[in-house]
Write a structure and sequence with these properties.
4 copies of one chain form a homotetramer. Chain A is α+β, with helices and mostly antiparallel strands. Chain A folds into 3 domains: 121 residues, Butyryl-Coa Dehydrogenase, subunit A, domain 1, CATH 1.10.540.10; 112 residues, Butyryl-CoA Dehydrogenase, subunit A, domain 2; 150 residues, Butyryl-CoA Dehydrogenase, subunit A, domain 3 (Up-down Bundle). The first copy, chain A, is 48% helix and 15% strand. Chain A is built from 12 helices and 9 strands. In chain A, the strands form 3 sheets. In chain A, strands 2-3-7-6 form a 4-stranded antiparallel beta sheet, with no helix packed on it. The first copy, chain A, has a 3-stranded mixed beta sheet with strand order 1-4-5. The first copy, chain A, has a two-stranded antiparallel ribbon with strand order 8-9. In chain A, strand 8 and strand 9 form a beta hairpin. In chain A, helix 6 runs antiparallel to helix 7, helix 9 packs antiparallel against helix 10 and helix 10 runs antiparallel to helix 11. Chain A starts with 6 loop residues before the first helix and ends in an 11-residue tail after the last helix. Chains in contact: A-B, A-C, A-D, B-C, B-D, C-D. Chains A, B, C, D: InterPro entries: Acyl-CoA_dehydrogenase, Acyl-CoA_Oxase/DH_mid-dom, Acyl-CoA_Oxase/DH_mid-dom_sf, AcylCo_DH-like_C, AcylCo_DH/oxidase_C, AcylCoA_DH/ox_N, AcylCoA_DH/ox_N_sf, AcylCoA_DH/oxidase_NM_dom_sf. Chains A, B, C, D: Keywords: FAD, Flavoprotein, Oxidoreductase.
Chain lengths: 410, 410, 410, 410
């Protein structure tokens, strides 16, 4: 297990750090300002974003996420991890480098399971940062933590598939550039539990696709990205839009979620590092009860625990990345499940301590803490709630003893 | 320590419960809808509010909060507790009964420390629910957890006081009906630490008072209430606007914060009860992995821990109320500090479990959980952060041993 | 819900406090020394114990625990609570007042379910403090947290019952004065689940009763009390030794465990109070890094959290006692389950903080902290593990909504 | 940062695992039995120990701990970590391989700072496993968490040093083979704070050295190892017994504690792994409430959290080892402080869950859980309490910002 960074990665890391300092952090407020000045928060993308994307391309900091693919930068997951972490320090960061969710996960799916035509039509403009995509899986009417509950139907009808169902939390669908959804549904409710589902490509301008509303997260609209509730009503797409083949929805989901999850974790580590940095600076700069807040023992415990938790989360994430690279996403599933539990909870604790240290300023928008917190909170639910991952980890642990002599506890 | 409810209280409790069921809960969405339909979210109060207030007055459910005063309903803190808890179940509840923060705290100040003229001018319209008020204490430039840090100056100049300073988190100042601020500042920086401060009444239409912006809380604007940043620039008010007398700001703050804090705690218990109710219904109504979510052991632990924590927080709050009633707010300071730590943290845990049980729906606005959570989060900071209260509790505990034989640990 | 103490209780409380100060605390070390000087730690009871018991009788502090019975002091559970708490501050305290486990629980059983002959033979010498008793329920071979797992057989054979089985954690059976066991077993494995069990009185000198060993708890032998593993091999007792009647074992257990559990909780509150007192004195008397340890913010948080947790646990225990007194043990089952979870966990946290504050001295026997901790740790298991109680609390909570409209989450 | 194991390490790991399975685990009870059969628990070492040591030597599994030294096996800290972890799974394990505390730490001191004569006399028999040693630092009369509090005097008198003081928790001094103590004391109370202390070699048979008693840990005597309280009364040793030179006591302590601490952490990870294994087997083999305990969601959360916490602690320990190997113990101090907080707390949580899963069996001596727990509990205090390490971590974190622009929170 070698976590050393190659010279290539060290160079890229420096470049990403410098880019963030020079271009991203100073433009976070600009982005928000431009967003406010538009007709609505959904009507267009703040122009600064395209400028930043151009800069990132010029600097060779583009599509760094794709391992094992001719399309990407040729980085392994382990190599991508320290870069993704830095991008994740800013909410606008990942998009600048074309490394944002859910597009990276969707692009991974297209690389792995897409036909040449599908790649031409959707992967290429996604890689170019020209369009964006969403992932339509969760449904409001069922406990979607159990994916077998999913109800949307994808029914074959001649050369077409007909899609009917209601989805929500299709994140990114609020973006005017979002052109394509990957929709998960059931094509055959009579098949074995994990072969009933399919995934299919649905252009958002297909008749019958209706974005009913954009859902807030703790009061934030996440514009212009947005979390959409979408109704698919007799939506017809050509049969060749199916991904891989019918009945493979679950298999694709398993493949997709590994990289998607680890990217989230990397970004959360970045968010947490930034929060700890903010916390440290704040408590060094303010005085209460006759001494710097940084000298309060309680605050020092917050700082120490934060440092400890971040370090541990990062190391476990690197281990997961290493396993994905060396034995594959499937074999790495315990590690992926572990970081999916660890990283959001760690980030929430660090952010909460930072909020407390900032006082009321911490819950406002003068700093990023509250927004980052809300963001991190969704990740205890998105891509599977903590409880489902913990159960999975326990089952894999218990499996080790399935043929053990249980009486032999020494 | 008698926590039994008198017949009067039992009757009022039933009335408040029924009122909430009949009028308040069904109008929460109406209120939000009316708010959206106005020109801006700050331009007016949703008309349903006045209708509900009239109903509450008609039902004799008005100004129930004021103990020991001819103005109120003659209830003790202990008697008010179970009523306040029920009102607190809805964010619009307290205002309906004219029992909302920060007005109740401000009215308590006026009852205790106001002159007859001050009462006539400000207390009476507040009691009538005609105007609203704000409390201007926290400042953006200093750690306001240490009130001696407060910088705003209140300088005597002939028959007037001149106020200069910047305040924020003056909650309620966004409300078009808000007419009066109680401002805390320093009149004499050379006096002993706790005698430098004064409180003064400043009508919001006084020249030099400028609301610069309204601060969000985790993405929520809390309109039309709002959390204002206010600049006081050479604001002149008549000398008789001083509360009590110069140098008494700290003493008033101590007196004011007791009731204000316990009211917050009562409401938080109500919020938590409602969240536990919501959680329970939700997990009974959804199925995952082949059984009702309510049958999952992990979820049952959430429910049990929530019930345990709510019960304990309520009992401690009742004890604090009982002590305030029997030995006074000052003697009850340990208990008040304890519930100020306990109640928000308890509510946050219960709400967080409920959010987790609701899945992604929990972070949206389809239910109240996320908004209530944001609300409760501010209460780990407002009226003193947890850390300051814990320190106070510890000091009072340690004081018990100041003349003890420390070697005699038996 | 009236938690006020009557004059009678206040007087008793003072008497118990004084008695503890004068006689019990100073003799804790004496008791341990006398124990060491005996041939074995199990051969006899340190003579100081009988002296103290005589003193307690003389002072009218004897058998204070029995509510609703001509045998006791006529105190309700609520009245007994503050007295039991003080007794519980010392591990030798409860026995001094004849209020120790498991005898009080066993005496309650005999009062409620015993025949006149049984009372004469066993209850009276127990009340007189002449003999002691044990409760033989838990079995080593099954998960006894589920009482239906219990395997010991109690088979009718003519005028006798024949008992066969292996029990452990029959606490108190190491005591040379222990004369009688209440044994739980199955008389009819074909009956409905909760009617298969019986309880029966088994004198320890009956042929076939064999104490195989005395189990340690975290290295402590708890001599001369002791936790016995007992084999019952073809043990024959007269049929009239049955308690209540065949098949009532479960019902008696339910009745017995309520009072037994709440007594444990009261004592744990006493232990925790004493630990907090010790912690406070210790940190006031030692200096590190240039200031008293009591001035460290982290230590102050320990003290504050301890005070908060003790207060809450005590109030909940009082509420449980109040409900037992007013609506009966069965109706109070939620409250009893709640305190059974709360009190041991609270005490463990407080004790752990005290241990940490004492440094290495805390894990030794120079102070009582480590021993008390071990003691408290068993109470997360004895009389049902936390997890079983939490499940029970959740089920009772969910039952509130069994006929509710689950869609109506307002 | 390369955590991959070389072939050499993989081979050693297999050998240690096999050795533990074949010789150590099966002899744990034998060791305890032999200890009981001796005249006293302190009179001799159970003979099985020497047999096992011979076996280990024969297998080339001896003194694996010493990095950078001709005396050891030539393993780095990183290479030793996985081996030490496995040894640590058994309390008797480390001694079998001559890798036990406090001898490894003391041997490191002698290797680094010892003169040739000192090495000849003490290091060589220690390396041979013929004698044992203790470390006499902590004092009962002061808060030893602050090492500047240490009071013992080491006064020069001609060609000798005269030592006066009282020490306790000199672990290992109970062992009849323990021949030498490293004593820390003050030679010059007027020097700068961190140059007042010296360390000196004191043979235990020197006149004036008196072991007053052996301290228990949660009821365990840890015989024949033992934790001694030692009085040094006018103890005279030759001047050449000083380690390094006068005034270097603190510097040596810093150097010594790094390796000592990380070894403890490695062993704790082993203890925790074994506890999780035991827990898993136990819950797979027992049934309650109609299903295997392993199927309970709550128990599954325990397993998952344990796996997560163990993995993270191990990775952080490896990182610390890696830094010690590559940049030195001093540069690795943040990482060492972090694992010193993480590992004991992690092990305590895992062990506590295992105890809970075992029910009452868990607190007894039928399994190792309670004893391991007590052992782990001391390690939140030994070599510095958690709070001191956290403070150190915070200070190092805050130091990063000492020349930062504190207003620039982006």
């Amino acid at each position: 297990m070698n976590f050393s960074y190659s010279e290539k990665v060290v160079t890229l890391q420096k470049k990403v750090i410098n880019f963030m300092e020079e271009y991203v952090y100073p433009n976070e407020k600009v982005y928000q300002e431009q967003l406010k000045q538009q007709k609505t928060r959904w009507s267009d993308i703040p122009p600064i974003m395209d400028e930043l994307k151009e800069k990132a391309k010029e600097n060779g900091l583009w599509n760094l996420f794709l391992p094992e693919s001719e399309y990407g930068a040729g980085l392994t997951n382990l190599e991508y991890a320290p870069l993704c972490e830095i991008m994740g320090r800013s909410v606008i960061g990942p998009e600048v480098f074309n490394c944002n969710a859910p597009d990276t996960g969707n692009m991974e799916v297209l690389v792995r399971y897409g036909t040449e035509i599908q790649k031409k039509q959707w992967l290429e403009p996604l890689l170019a940062g020209e369009i964006r995509s969403c992932f339509s899986m969760t449904e409001p009417d069922v406990a979607s933590s159990d994916a077998t509950n999913i109800n949307t139907s994808i029914r074959r009808d001649g050369d077409e598939f007909v899609i009917n169902g209601r989805k929500w939390w299709s994140s990114g669908a609020g973006d005017p550039r979002c052109k394509i959804a990957i929709v998960m549904g059931k094509n055959d409710p009579t098949a074995p539990s994990y072969e009933q589902q399919s995934m299919i490509l649905v252009p958002l301008d297909t008749p019958g696709v209706k974005i009913e509303r954009l859902l807030p997260v703790f009061g934030y609209d996440d514009a212009p990205h947005g979390h959409a509730e979408i109704v698919y009503e007799n939506v017809r797409v050509p049969a060749e839009n199916i991904l891989w083949e019918e009945g493979k929805g679950f298999a694709i989901a398993q493949g997709r979620l590994g990289p998607g999850r680890i990217h989230h974790c990397m970004r959360l580590i970045g968010l947490a590092e930034r929060a700890l940095e903010d916390l440290s600076k704040r408590v060094l700069s303010r005085t209460a009860f006759g001494k710097k807040i940084a000298e309060q023992g309680v605050v020092q415990e917050w700082i120490a625990d934060s440092r400890i938790e971040i370090e541990q989360a990062r190391l476990l994430t690197l281990k997961a990345a290493y396993k994905m690279d060396t034995v594959g996403n499937k074999e790495a599933k315990t590690e992926i499940a572990m970081i999916k539990v660890v990283a959001p909870n760690m980030a929430l604790r660090v952010l909460d301590r930072a909020i407390q240290a900032f006082g009321a300023a911490g819950v406002s928008d003068d700093f990023n803490l509250a927004y980052h917190w809300a963001n991190a909170r969704t990740l205890r639910l998105a891509d599977g709630p903590d409880e489902v991952h913990r159960r999975q980890i326990a089952k894999l642990e218990l499996r080790k003893y399935q043929s053990a002599d249980l009486a032999a506890i020494h």
